[in-house]
Amino acid sequence: MGKVDLTPLYRSSIGFDHLGHLLDNALRADRSEREHPPCNIEVTGENRYRITLAVPGFTNDELEVQSAEGILTVRGKRQEEEASDSRYVHQGIHYYPFERRFSLADFVEVRGASLHHGLLQIDLIREVPDTLKPRRIEIQANTDQAASAALDQSGKEVKA
Fold it and tell me: Which CATH number do you get for residue 122?
């Protein structure tokens, strides 16, 4: 599959250069890798998300959830079972080891994970620091008083 040309985005945006890399990785990923195990990604509230993966037959000890550098990785590997004398006519249930990766947006953090009835649920929240949230800037009237006001190093208003 060809590359995505994001040149128009780069002309009018700053700081989105990592998007090209993100899109290339998503397009390059093997389809079977993206589909196993199946998952749901849902919005559970404002800035709250939940990833649910179908992992029947896996226990807590056989699953690993890790978050590092904006990537959430979920791994599953069944522990070796004792050899049994079972003979199958058909064996359609396989417990293949897997690794599933999710790219997390800025300020998205994992809040917890739980396993219920073969479904692994991972709760996430997006918390933008107050210093990065939009703030309203007061516009001063163009008067002699406003024009003569200046700020010193500590940010306090000083009359000239």
Answer: 2.60.40.790
